[in-house]
Write a structure and sequence with these properties.
homodimer, Jelly Rolls, DNA-binding, 261 residues
DNA sequence: CGCGCCTTTGAAGGAGCTCAATTTAGGTGG
DNA sequence: CCACCTAAATTGAGCTCCTTCAAAGGCGCG
Protein backbone atom coordinates (compact mmCIF):
# COMPACT_ATOMS: atom_id res chain seq x y z
CA UNK A 1 0.00 0.00 0.00
CA UNK A 2 2.86 2.29 0.77
CA UNK A 3 4.68 1.28 -2.35
CA UNK A 4 1.51 2.01 -4.26
CA UNK A 5 1.17 5.34 -2.59
CA UNK A 6 4.66 6.36 -3.47
CA UNK A 7 4.13 5.20 -7.00
CA UNK A 8 0.91 7.02 -7.36
CA UNK A 9 2.24 10.18 -5.99
CA UNK A 10 5.78 10.21 -7.22
CA UNK A 11 5.69 10.29 -10.99
CA UNK A 12 9.33 10.01 -11.85
CA UNK A 13 12.03 8.63 -9.66
CA UNK A 14 10.22 6.10 -7.56
CA UNK A 15 11.42 2.55 -7.91
CA UNK A 16 9.14 -0.23 -6.85
CA UNK A 17 9.75 -3.89 -6.36
CA UNK A 18 6.08 -4.51 -6.85
CA UNK A 19 4.70 -2.46 -9.63
CA UNK A 20 1.27 -3.88 -9.51
CA UNK A 21 0.56 -0.82 -7.55
CA UNK A 22 2.18 1.53 -10.01
CA UNK A 23 -1.01 2.90 -11.36
CA UNK A 24 0.07 6.26 -12.61
CA UNK A 25 -2.40 7.68 -15.08
CA UNK A 26 -0.33 10.83 -15.23
CA UNK A 27 1.44 11.61 -18.45
CA UNK A 28 5.06 12.38 -19.01
CA UNK A 29 5.76 15.21 -16.68
CA UNK A 30 7.94 18.08 -17.61
CA UNK A 31 8.54 20.72 -15.07
CA UNK A 32 9.54 22.98 -17.88
CA UNK A 33 7.72 25.01 -20.44
CA UNK A 34 5.89 26.82 -17.75
CA UNK A 35 7.02 30.33 -18.40
CA UNK A 36 7.80 32.02 -21.64
CA UNK A 37 11.44 32.62 -20.92
CA UNK A 38 13.10 29.55 -22.32
CA UNK A 39 13.01 30.03 -26.01
CA UNK A 40 16.68 30.10 -26.85
CA UNK A 41 18.45 27.15 -28.37
CA UNK A 42 21.55 26.09 -26.50
CA UNK A 43 24.60 25.36 -28.52
CA UNK A 44 26.48 23.72 -25.71
CA UNK A 45 24.59 21.48 -23.39
CA UNK A 46 25.44 20.86 -19.79
CA UNK A 47 26.31 17.27 -19.09
CA UNK A 48 23.22 16.61 -17.05
CA UNK A 49 20.10 18.16 -18.42
CA UNK A 50 17.12 18.57 -16.21
CA UNK A 51 13.77 18.09 -17.77
CA UNK A 52 13.30 21.82 -17.59
CA UNK A 53 16.47 22.48 -19.51
CA UNK A 54 15.63 19.71 -21.89
CA UNK A 55 12.38 21.30 -22.87
CA UNK A 56 13.66 24.84 -22.69
CA UNK A 57 16.25 23.98 -25.29
CA UNK A 58 13.62 22.61 -27.61
CA UNK A 59 10.81 25.05 -27.56
CA UNK A 60 10.66 27.07 -30.71
CA UNK A 61 7.23 28.52 -30.45
CA UNK A 62 4.27 28.82 -28.20
CA UNK A 63 0.66 28.83 -29.18
CA UNK A 64 -2.38 30.15 -27.42
CA UNK A 65 -5.32 27.82 -27.40
CA UNK A 66 -8.91 28.31 -26.36
CA UNK A 67 -11.20 25.80 -24.72
CA UNK A 68 -12.28 22.98 -27.07
CA UNK A 69 -9.65 24.04 -29.60
CA UNK A 70 -7.97 21.15 -31.40
CA UNK A 71 -4.18 20.86 -31.14
CA UNK A 72 -3.85 17.96 -33.52
CA UNK A 73 -6.30 15.50 -34.95
CA UNK A 74 -6.11 11.75 -35.38
CA UNK A 75 -4.96 11.10 -38.92
CA UNK A 76 -3.08 14.37 -39.31
CA UNK A 77 0.50 14.07 -40.52
CA UNK A 78 2.84 14.05 -37.56
CA UNK A 79 5.51 16.70 -37.35
CA UNK A 80 5.36 18.26 -33.91
CA UNK A 81 4.95 17.26 -30.31
CA UNK A 82 3.43 19.52 -27.69
CA UNK A 83 4.03 20.43 -24.10
CA UNK A 84 1.16 21.72 -22.04
CA UNK A 85 2.31 25.11 -20.83
CA UNK A 86 -0.74 26.45 -19.10
CA UNK A 87 -4.26 25.15 -19.10
CA UNK A 88 -5.15 21.50 -19.50
CA UNK A 89 -5.69 19.10 -22.36
CA UNK A 90 -7.17 15.75 -23.19
CA UNK A 91 -6.25 13.23 -25.84
CA UNK A 92 -8.79 10.82 -27.24
CA UNK A 93 -9.60 8.48 -30.08
CA UNK A 94 -12.97 7.90 -31.67
CA UNK A 95 -14.43 4.43 -31.84
CA UNK A 96 -16.21 3.79 -35.09
CA UNK A 97 -19.56 3.99 -33.37
CA UNK A 98 -18.72 7.60 -32.64
CA UNK A 99 -17.94 7.47 -28.95
CA UNK A 100 -14.69 8.83 -27.71
CA UNK A 101 -12.20 7.05 -25.53
CA UNK A 102 -10.09 9.50 -23.57
CA UNK A 103 -6.49 8.28 -23.47
CA UNK A 104 -4.94 10.97 -21.32
CA UNK A 105 -5.24 14.24 -19.46
CA UNK A 106 -2.35 16.66 -19.53
CA UNK A 107 -1.52 19.64 -17.38
CA UNK A 108 1.47 21.95 -17.21
CA UNK A 109 4.80 20.57 -18.30
CA UNK A 110 3.53 17.31 -19.72
CA UNK A 111 4.50 16.05 -23.14
CA UNK A 112 1.83 15.10 -25.66
CA UNK A 113 1.48 13.36 -29.02
CA UNK A 114 4.39 10.92 -28.78
CA UNK A 115 2.13 8.31 -30.34
CA UNK A 116 2.41 9.92 -33.73
CA UNK A 117 6.03 9.00 -34.37
CA UNK A 118 5.41 5.44 -35.37
CA UNK A 119 3.05 5.89 -38.28
CA UNK A 120 4.05 9.49 -38.92
CA UNK A 121 0.42 10.38 -38.33
CA UNK A 122 -1.26 11.36 -35.13
CA UNK A 123 -3.23 8.58 -33.52
CA UNK A 124 -5.11 10.76 -31.10
CA UNK A 125 -6.93 14.05 -31.18
CA UNK A 126 -5.80 16.52 -28.55
CA UNK A 127 -8.05 19.35 -27.42
CA UNK A 128 -7.79 22.04 -24.77
CA UNK A 129 -10.05 21.62 -21.75
CA UNK A 130 -9.63 25.28 -20.90
CA UNK A 131 -7.93 28.31 -22.35
CA UNK A 132 -4.19 27.96 -22.20
CA UNK A 133 -0.90 27.75 -24.00
CA UNK A 134 1.19 24.99 -25.52
CA UNK A 135 4.82 24.76 -26.46
CA UNK A 136 5.15 23.48 -30.00
CA UNK A 137 8.20 21.36 -30.65
CA UNK A 138 9.34 20.24 -34.07
CA UNK A 139 10.04 16.54 -33.87
CA UNK A 140 12.71 16.76 -36.55
CA UNK A 141 14.42 19.40 -34.46
CA UNK A 142 14.07 17.25 -31.39
CA UNK A 143 15.75 14.32 -33.12
CA UNK A 144 18.49 16.54 -34.47
CA UNK A 145 19.27 17.93 -31.04
CA UNK A 146 18.96 14.47 -29.66
CA UNK A 147 21.63 12.97 -31.88
CA UNK A 148 24.05 15.74 -31.00
CA UNK A 149 23.85 15.32 -27.27
CA UNK A 150 23.76 11.97 -25.52
CA UNK A 151 22.22 13.33 -22.35
CA UNK A 152 19.62 15.12 -24.33
CA UNK A 153 18.83 11.92 -26.16
CA UNK A 154 18.60 9.99 -22.94
CA UNK A 155 16.21 12.51 -21.44
CA UNK A 156 13.95 12.11 -24.39
CA UNK A 157 14.05 8.34 -24.21
CA UNK A 158 13.11 8.56 -20.57
CA UNK A 159 10.12 10.68 -21.44
CA UNK A 160 8.93 8.22 -24.06
CA UNK A 161 9.45 5.39 -21.62
CA UNK A 162 7.47 7.29 -19.04
CA UNK A 163 4.54 7.47 -21.38
CA UNK A 164 4.75 3.69 -21.77
CA UNK A 165 4.82 3.27 -18.00
CA UNK A 166 1.90 5.64 -17.61
CA UNK A 167 -0.18 3.59 -20.01
CA UNK A 168 0.82 0.39 -18.26
CA UNK A 169 -0.54 1.88 -15.07
CA UNK A 170 -3.76 2.65 -16.83
CA UNK A 171 -3.95 -0.90 -18.11
CA UNK A 172 -3.80 -2.16 -14.55
CA UNK A 173 -6.44 0.32 -13.54
CA UNK A 174 -8.73 -0.71 -16.37
CA UNK A 175 -7.92 -4.38 -16.07
CA UNK A 176 -8.33 -5.14 -12.41
CA UNK A 177 -9.65 -2.21 -10.42
CA UNK A 178 -13.16 -1.57 -9.19
CA UNK A 179 -14.94 1.68 -9.85
CA UNK A 180 -14.12 3.26 -6.50
CA UNK A 181 -10.49 2.23 -6.79
CA UNK A 182 -10.27 3.76 -10.25
CA UNK A 183 -11.71 7.05 -9.13
CA UNK A 184 -9.54 7.21 -6.01
CA UNK A 185 -6.45 6.41 -8.07
CA UNK A 186 -7.37 9.06 -10.56
CA UNK A 187 -7.91 11.74 -7.91
CA UNK A 188 -4.69 10.95 -6.08
CA UNK A 189 -2.71 11.01 -9.28
CA UNK A 190 -4.22 14.30 -10.31
CA UNK A 191 -3.61 15.77 -6.86
CA UNK A 192 0.04 14.85 -7.02
CA UNK A 193 0.44 16.37 -10.44
CA UNK A 194 -1.12 19.60 -9.28
CA UNK A 195 1.11 19.57 -6.23
CA UNK A 196 4.20 19.04 -8.38
CA UNK A 197 3.13 22.01 -10.47
CA UNK A 198 3.07 24.23 -7.42
CA UNK A 199 -0.69 24.18 -6.96
CA UNK A 200 -2.49 22.73 -4.02
CA UNK A 201 -2.58 18.97 -3.94
CA UNK A 202 -5.35 18.96 -1.38
CA UNK A 203 -7.84 21.17 -3.15
CA UNK A 204 -8.24 21.69 -6.85
CA UNK A 205 -10.67 22.03 -9.69
CA UNK A 206 -11.34 19.22 -12.09
CA UNK A 207 -10.87 20.58 -15.56
CA UNK A 208 -12.81 17.76 -17.17
CA UNK A 209 -16.41 16.55 -17.10
CA UNK A 210 -17.67 13.40 -15.39
CA UNK A 211 -18.14 11.94 -18.82
CA UNK A 212 -14.51 12.52 -19.73
CA UNK A 213 -13.33 11.04 -16.46
CA UNK A 214 -15.60 8.08 -17.06
CA UNK A 215 -14.26 7.53 -20.55
CA UNK A 216 -10.72 7.67 -19.25
CA UNK A 217 -11.44 5.26 -16.40
CA UNK A 218 -13.65 2.89 -18.36
CA UNK A 219 -16.77 3.83 -16.38
CA UNK A 220 -20.07 5.48 -17.18
CA UNK A 221 -20.41 9.11 -16.17
CA UNK A 222 -23.14 8.16 -13.71
CA UNK A 223 -20.84 5.72 -11.94
CA UNK A 224 -18.14 8.38 -11.64
CA UNK A 225 -20.67 10.75 -10.13
CA UNK A 226 -21.99 8.10 -7.76
CA UNK A 227 -18.53 7.11 -6.57
CA UNK A 228 -17.59 10.74 -5.99
CA UNK A 229 -20.76 11.22 -3.97
CA UNK A 230 -20.08 8.10 -2.00
CA UNK A 231 -16.49 9.08 -1.23
CA UNK A 232 -17.87 12.44 -0.19
CA UNK A 233 -20.38 10.78 2.16
CA UNK A 234 -17.51 8.85 3.72
CA UNK A 235 -15.66 12.13 4.20
CA UNK A 236 -12.74 10.73 2.24
CA UNK A 237 -13.05 13.63 -0.16
CA UNK A 238 -15.16 16.72 -0.46
CA UNK A 239 -16.90 17.27 -3.77
CA UNK A 240 -18.80 20.28 -4.91
CA UNK A 241 -19.26 20.16 -8.65
CA UNK A 242 -15.77 20.44 -10.13
CA UNK A 243 -14.13 21.43 -6.87
CA UNK A 244 -12.40 18.56 -5.10
CA UNK A 245 -10.76 18.54 -1.69
CA UNK A 246 -8.73 15.66 -0.32
CA UNK A 247 -8.34 16.25 3.41
CA UNK A 248 -6.41 13.03 4.00
CA UNK A 249 -4.69 11.51 0.99
CA UNK A 250 -3.55 8.57 3.06
CA UNK A 251 -7.10 7.67 3.98
CA UNK A 252 -8.22 7.97 0.38
CA UNK A 253 -5.35 5.82 -0.72
CA UNK A 254 -6.62 3.11 1.58
CA UNK A 255 -9.66 2.47 -0.59
CA UNK A 256 -7.37 1.29 -3.36
CA UNK A 257 -7.04 -2.43 -2.94
CA UNK A 258 -10.36 -2.85 -1.21
CA UNK A 259 -12.44 -5.31 -3.17
CA UNK A 260 -15.66 -3.63 -2.10
CA UNK A 261 -16.42 -0.14 -0.98
CA UNK B 1 -15.35 -1.53 -39.51
CA UNK B 2 -12.94 -1.78 -42.37
CA UNK B 3 -10.69 0.82 -40.91
CA UNK B 4 -10.71 -1.15 -37.72
CA UNK B 5 -9.94 -4.31 -39.56
CA UNK B 6 -6.98 -2.82 -41.31
CA UNK B 7 -5.72 -1.44 -38.07
CA UNK B 8 -6.11 -4.67 -36.29
CA UNK B 9 -4.35 -6.61 -38.89
CA UNK B 10 -1.75 -4.23 -40.12
CA UNK B 11 0.53 -3.50 -37.21
CA UNK B 12 2.84 -0.93 -38.70
CA UNK B 13 2.12 1.14 -41.73
CA UNK B 14 -1.63 1.50 -41.63
CA UNK B 15 -2.86 5.03 -41.25
CA UNK B 16 -6.37 5.54 -40.05
CA UNK B 17 -8.47 8.65 -39.96
CA UNK B 18 -10.44 7.12 -37.17
CA UNK B 19 -8.27 5.41 -34.70
CA UNK B 20 -10.97 4.44 -32.33
CA UNK B 21 -10.69 1.17 -34.06
CA UNK B 22 -6.95 0.92 -33.72
CA UNK B 23 -6.98 -1.74 -31.11
CA UNK B 24 -3.65 -3.35 -31.59
CA UNK B 25 -2.61 -5.37 -28.59
CA UNK B 26 0.45 -6.50 -30.48
CA UNK B 27 3.78 -5.24 -29.31
CA UNK B 28 6.48 -3.52 -31.29
CA UNK B 29 7.12 -5.83 -34.17
CA UNK B 30 10.55 -6.47 -35.49
CA UNK B 31 10.90 -8.73 -38.44
CA UNK B 32 14.49 -9.16 -37.45
CA UNK B 33 16.29 -11.21 -34.88
CA UNK B 34 14.77 -14.33 -36.25
CA UNK B 35 17.87 -16.17 -37.29
CA UNK B 36 21.25 -16.15 -35.73
CA UNK B 37 23.03 -14.61 -38.67
CA UNK B 38 22.93 -10.94 -37.91
CA UNK B 39 25.37 -10.50 -35.14
CA UNK B 40 27.87 -8.14 -36.72
CA UNK B 41 27.92 -4.48 -35.96
CA UNK B 42 27.80 -2.28 -39.00
CA UNK B 43 30.23 0.58 -39.11
CA UNK B 44 28.53 2.33 -41.98
CA UNK B 45 24.79 2.37 -42.01
CA UNK B 46 22.66 2.52 -45.08
CA UNK B 47 20.55 5.63 -45.24
CA UNK B 48 17.33 3.78 -44.77
CA UNK B 49 17.46 1.04 -42.21
CA UNK B 50 14.81 -1.59 -42.18
CA UNK B 51 13.70 -2.88 -38.86
CA UNK B 52 15.61 -6.04 -39.61
CA UNK B 53 18.81 -4.18 -40.20
CA UNK B 54 18.15 -2.01 -37.21
CA UNK B 55 17.98 -4.95 -34.90
CA UNK B 56 20.66 -6.90 -36.66
CA UNK B 57 23.09 -4.10 -36.02
CA UNK B 58 22.28 -4.09 -32.35
CA UNK B 59 22.25 -7.66 -31.29
CA UNK B 60 25.29 -8.53 -29.30
CA UNK B 61 24.23 -11.78 -27.77
CA UNK B 62 21.50 -14.34 -27.76
CA UNK B 63 20.22 -16.29 -24.85
CA UNK B 64 18.34 -19.55 -24.67
CA UNK B 65 15.39 -19.55 -22.35
CA UNK B 66 13.17 -22.32 -21.09
CA UNK B 67 9.49 -22.18 -20.37
CA UNK B 68 8.64 -20.12 -17.24
CA UNK B 69 12.19 -18.74 -17.17
CA UNK B 70 12.43 -15.11 -16.11
CA UNK B 71 14.07 -12.65 -18.52
CA UNK B 72 13.96 -9.70 -16.21
CA UNK B 73 12.05 -8.93 -13.07
CA UNK B 74 10.16 -5.85 -11.94
CA UNK B 75 12.53 -3.82 -9.80
CA UNK B 76 15.71 -5.10 -11.43
CA UNK B 77 18.12 -2.43 -12.60
CA UNK B 78 17.54 -1.69 -16.25
CA UNK B 79 20.40 -2.17 -18.65
CA UNK B 80 19.18 -4.26 -21.56
CA UNK B 81 16.19 -4.59 -23.80
CA UNK B 82 15.15 -7.84 -25.41
CA UNK B 83 13.84 -9.03 -28.73
CA UNK B 84 11.86 -12.24 -28.88
CA UNK B 85 13.78 -14.42 -31.31
CA UNK B 86 11.94 -17.71 -31.11
CA UNK B 87 9.29 -18.81 -28.67
CA UNK B 88 6.90 -16.47 -26.95
CA UNK B 89 6.91 -14.28 -23.88
CA UNK B 90 4.63 -12.44 -21.56
CA UNK B 91 5.20 -9.34 -19.48
CA UNK B 92 3.28 -8.69 -16.30
CA UNK B 93 3.17 -6.73 -13.08
CA UNK B 94 2.02 -7.94 -9.70
CA UNK B 95 -0.74 -6.12 -7.87
CA UNK B 96 -0.10 -5.89 -4.15
CA UNK B 97 -2.77 -8.48 -3.48
CA UNK B 98 -0.61 -10.91 -5.38
CA UNK B 99 -2.51 -11.25 -8.63
CA UNK B 100 -0.71 -10.63 -11.87
CA UNK B 101 -1.82 -8.27 -14.61
CA UNK B 102 -0.42 -9.34 -17.97
CA UNK B 103 0.67 -6.27 -19.93
CA UNK B 104 1.78 -7.89 -23.15
CA UNK B 105 2.48 -11.01 -25.17
CA UNK B 106 5.48 -11.10 -27.45
CA UNK B 107 6.41 -13.35 -30.32
CA UNK B 108 9.24 -13.38 -32.82
CA UNK B 109 10.81 -10.05 -33.63
CA UNK B 110 9.04 -8.01 -31.00
CA UNK B 111 10.88 -5.65 -28.69
CA UNK B 112 10.43 -5.93 -24.94
CA UNK B 113 11.24 -4.03 -21.74
CA UNK B 114 11.16 -0.47 -23.07
CA UNK B 115 9.34 0.53 -19.92
CA UNK B 116 12.52 0.28 -17.90
CA UNK B 117 14.24 3.32 -19.38
CA UNK B 118 12.38 5.90 -17.38
CA UNK B 119 13.17 4.82 -13.85
CA UNK B 120 16.27 2.82 -14.84
CA UNK B 121 14.55 -0.16 -13.33
CA UNK B 122 12.31 -2.70 -14.98
CA UNK B 123 8.64 -2.14 -14.33
CA UNK B 124 7.50 -5.51 -15.56
CA UNK B 125 8.57 -9.10 -15.20
CA UNK B 126 9.05 -10.93 -18.47
CA UNK B 127 8.89 -14.71 -18.66
CA UNK B 128 9.02 -17.22 -21.47
CA UNK B 129 5.77 -18.98 -22.32
CA UNK B 130 7.69 -21.72 -24.09
CA UNK B 131 11.28 -22.68 -24.75
CA UNK B 132 12.92 -20.18 -27.05
CA UNK B 133 15.60 -17.62 -27.61
CA UNK B 134 15.96 -13.89 -27.04
CA UNK B 135 18.30 -11.31 -28.45
CA UNK B 136 19.84 -9.29 -25.66
CA UNK B 137 20.56 -5.68 -26.49
CA UNK B 138 22.55 -3.33 -24.31
CA UNK B 139 20.58 -0.15 -23.99
CA UNK B 140 23.71 1.95 -23.60
CA UNK B 141 24.93 0.47 -26.87
CA UNK B 142 21.61 1.17 -28.48
CA UNK B 143 21.76 4.82 -27.48
CA UNK B 144 25.35 5.11 -28.62
CA UNK B 145 24.52 3.72 -32.03
CA UNK B 146 21.44 5.84 -32.08
CA UNK B 147 23.27 9.11 -31.63
CA UNK B 148 25.67 8.24 -34.43
CA UNK B 149 23.05 7.57 -37.04
CA UNK B 150 19.94 9.65 -37.53
CA UNK B 151 18.01 6.93 -39.29
CA UNK B 152 18.94 4.46 -36.67
CA UNK B 153 17.72 6.87 -34.04
CA UNK B 154 14.48 7.44 -35.88
CA UNK B 155 13.85 3.70 -36.18
CA UNK B 156 14.21 3.36 -32.47
CA UNK B 157 11.87 6.25 -31.76
CA UNK B 158 9.33 4.65 -34.01
CA UNK B 159 9.56 1.43 -32.07
CA UNK B 160 9.04 3.21 -28.78
CA UNK B 161 6.14 5.10 -30.26
CA UNK B 162 4.69 1.84 -31.47
CA UNK B 163 4.68 0.50 -27.96
CA UNK B 164 2.76 3.60 -26.90
CA UNK B 165 0.27 3.07 -29.70
CA UNK B 166 -0.08 -0.59 -28.79
CA UNK B 167 -0.93 0.28 -25.23
CA UNK B 168 -3.39 2.92 -26.39
CA UNK B 169 -5.15 0.22 -28.35
CA UNK B 170 -5.30 -1.89 -25.26
CA UNK B 171 -6.74 1.01 -23.31
CA UNK B 172 -9.57 1.22 -25.82
CA UNK B 173 -10.09 -2.49 -25.57
CA UNK B 174 -10.19 -2.42 -21.78
CA UNK B 175 -12.15 0.80 -21.67
CA UNK B 176 -15.04 0.27 -24.00
CA UNK B 177 -15.16 -3.25 -25.42
CA UNK B 178 -17.37 -6.14 -24.39
CA UNK B 179 -15.94 -9.53 -23.57
CA UNK B 180 -16.62 -11.03 -27.01
CA UNK B 181 -15.13 -8.00 -28.72
CA UNK B 182 -12.01 -8.21 -26.61
CA UNK B 183 -11.49 -11.86 -27.36
CA UNK B 184 -12.15 -11.42 -31.09
CA UNK B 185 -9.77 -8.47 -31.20
CA UNK B 186 -7.15 -10.46 -29.38
CA UNK B 187 -7.42 -13.44 -31.71
CA UNK B 188 -7.33 -11.34 -34.86
CA UNK B 189 -4.33 -9.43 -33.65
CA UNK B 190 -2.51 -12.61 -32.74
CA UNK B 191 -3.41 -14.17 -36.09
CA UNK B 192 -1.96 -11.24 -37.94
CA UNK B 193 1.23 -11.34 -35.96
CA UNK B 194 1.67 -15.02 -36.68
CA UNK B 195 0.97 -14.37 -40.34
CA UNK B 196 3.55 -11.60 -40.43
CA UNK B 197 6.05 -14.02 -38.91
CA UNK B 198 5.49 -16.48 -41.74
CA UNK B 199 3.23 -18.80 -39.80
CA UNK B 200 -0.37 -19.48 -40.60
CA UNK B 201 -2.70 -16.70 -39.69
CA UNK B 202 -5.72 -18.94 -39.96
CA UNK B 203 -4.61 -21.71 -37.65
CA UNK B 204 -2.27 -21.46 -34.72
CA UNK B 205 -1.61 -22.52 -31.18
CA UNK B 206 -2.19 -20.22 -28.27
CA UNK B 207 0.98 -20.15 -26.25
CA UNK B 208 -0.76 -18.78 -23.17
CA UNK B 209 -3.42 -20.05 -20.78
CA UNK B 210 -7.00 -18.81 -20.54
CA UNK B 211 -6.05 -17.18 -17.31
CA UNK B 212 -3.23 -15.23 -18.94
CA UNK B 213 -5.49 -14.14 -21.77
CA UNK B 214 -8.09 -13.11 -19.23
CA UNK B 215 -5.61 -11.07 -17.27
CA UNK B 216 -4.46 -9.35 -20.44
CA UNK B 217 -8.01 -8.62 -21.57
CA UNK B 218 -9.40 -7.68 -18.18
CA UNK B 219 -11.66 -10.74 -18.03
CA UNK B 220 -11.91 -13.80 -15.84
CA UNK B 221 -10.54 -17.01 -17.28
CA UNK B 222 -14.03 -18.48 -17.25
CA UNK B 223 -15.34 -15.66 -19.39
CA UNK B 224 -12.53 -16.15 -21.88
CA UNK B 225 -13.37 -19.83 -22.07
CA UNK B 226 -17.07 -19.15 -22.45
CA UNK B 227 -16.57 -16.60 -25.20
CA UNK B 228 -14.27 -18.95 -27.08
CA UNK B 229 -16.87 -21.70 -26.80
CA UNK B 230 -19.57 -19.36 -27.96
CA UNK B 231 -17.57 -18.14 -30.96
CA UNK B 232 -16.90 -21.78 -31.70
CA UNK B 233 -20.64 -22.57 -31.58
CA UNK B 234 -21.24 -19.76 -34.04
CA UNK B 235 -18.58 -21.26 -36.32
CA UNK B 236 -16.72 -17.98 -36.26
CA UNK B 237 -13.69 -19.80 -34.96
CA UNK B 238 -12.74 -23.35 -34.20
CA UNK B 239 -11.32 -24.01 -30.76
CA UNK B 240 -9.80 -27.20 -29.46
CA UNK B 241 -7.84 -26.46 -26.33
CA UNK B 242 -4.95 -24.26 -27.39
CA UNK B 243 -5.48 -24.79 -31.10
CA UNK B 244 -7.39 -22.00 -32.79
CA UNK B 245 -8.61 -21.80 -36.37
CA UNK B 246 -10.11 -18.71 -37.93
CA UNK B 247 -11.83 -19.80 -41.14
CA UNK B 248 -13.10 -16.34 -41.99
CA UNK B 249 -11.28 -13.45 -40.37
CA UNK B 250 -13.70 -11.01 -41.92
CA UNK B 251 -16.65 -12.67 -40.25
CA UNK B 252 -14.88 -12.72 -36.92
CA UNK B 253 -14.01 -9.08 -37.30
CA UNK B 254 -17.69 -8.32 -37.63
CA UNK B 255 -18.34 -9.17 -33.99
CA UNK B 256 -16.17 -6.22 -32.98
CA UNK B 257 -18.48 -3.28 -32.62
CA UNK B 258 -21.53 -5.37 -31.78
CA UNK B 259 -22.86 -4.26 -28.44
CA UNK B 260 -24.19 -7.70 -27.67
CA UNK B 261 -23.21 -11.11 -28.90
C1' DC C 1 -33.36 35.55 -17.44
C1' DG C 2 -33.68 31.40 -19.87
C1' DC C 3 -31.53 27.88 -22.25
C1' DG C 4 -28.24 24.17 -22.61
C1' DC C 5 -24.98 21.36 -20.61
C1' DC C 6 -23.33 19.17 -16.69
C1' DT C 7 -24.38 16.74 -12.60
C1' DT C 8 -26.94 14.13 -9.36
C1' DT C 9 -29.89 10.47 -7.93
C1' DG C 10 -33.11 6.55 -8.51
C1' DA C 11 -34.62 2.05 -10.34
C1' DA C 12 -34.18 -1.93 -13.20
C1' DG C 13 -31.68 -4.95 -15.93
C1' DG C 14 -27.62 -7.29 -17.66
C1' DA C 15 -22.79 -8.57 -18.40
C1' DG C 16 -19.42 -10.74 -16.32
C1' DC C 17 -17.47 -12.55 -11.75
C1' DT C 18 -17.19 -16.01 -8.21
C1' DC C 19 -17.78 -20.41 -6.58
C1' DA C 20 -18.04 -25.10 -7.71
C1' DA C 21 -18.05 -29.49 -10.18
C1' DT C 22 -16.56 -32.09 -14.19
C1' DT C 23 -13.69 -33.10 -18.12
C1' DT C 24 -9.49 -33.07 -20.63
C1' DA C 25 -4.66 -32.85 -21.60
C1' DG C 26 0.07 -33.46 -20.55
C1' DG C 27 3.76 -35.12 -17.92
C1' DT C 28 5.92 -38.66 -14.83
C1' DG C 29 7.06 -42.84 -12.92
C1' DG C 30 6.20 -47.49 -12.48
C1' DC D 1 2.69 -48.58 -22.39
C1' DC D 2 -0.45 -47.56 -19.01
C1' DA D 3 -1.96 -45.43 -14.71
C1' DC D 4 -1.63 -41.75 -12.09
C1' DC D 5 -1.39 -36.90 -11.04
C1' DT D 6 -1.53 -32.20 -11.70
C1' DA D 7 -2.71 -28.19 -14.26
C1' DA D 8 -5.76 -26.32 -17.61
C1' DA D 9 -10.18 -25.94 -19.63
C1' DT D 10 -15.15 -26.33 -19.72
C1' DT D 11 -19.65 -25.61 -18.04
C1' DG D 12 -23.31 -24.35 -14.72
C1' DA D 13 -25.74 -21.35 -11.19
C1' DG D 14 -26.22 -17.43 -8.36
C1' DC D 15 -24.91 -13.01 -7.38
C1' DT D 16 -22.72 -8.37 -7.73
C1' DC D 17 -21.26 -4.43 -9.70
C1' DC D 18 -21.96 -1.51 -13.07
C1' DT D 19 -24.66 0.15 -17.02
C1' DT D 20 -28.69 1.95 -18.99
C1' DC D 21 -32.73 4.56 -18.84
C1' DA D 22 -35.08 8.23 -16.70
C1' DA D 23 -36.01 12.49 -14.26
C1' DA D 24 -34.84 16.37 -11.62
C1' DG D 25 -31.65 19.93 -9.98
C1' DG D 26 -27.68 23.27 -10.68
C1' DC D 27 -24.42 26.20 -12.95
C1' DG D 28 -22.79 29.22 -16.50
C1' DC D 29 -23.24 31.78 -20.57
C1' DG D 30 -25.40 34.33 -24.05
Amino acid sequence: MDARARELLGPPAAVAQRIGSSVSPGPSHLAACLDGGARQTYREFPMHLTETEFIGALVQSKRRVRRTEVLCEAGDPFSHVYVASSGSFKSFVLTEDGRQQVTGFYIGGELMALDGIESEHHRVTITALEDGEVCVISFAHLEEMSSKTPHFQHQFHKLMSREIVREQGLMILLGVMRAHERVATFLLNLAERFRARGYSGTQFNLCMTRGEIGSYLGLSLETVSRVLSHLNDQALISVKQRCIAIPDAHALRAVIGQRAL
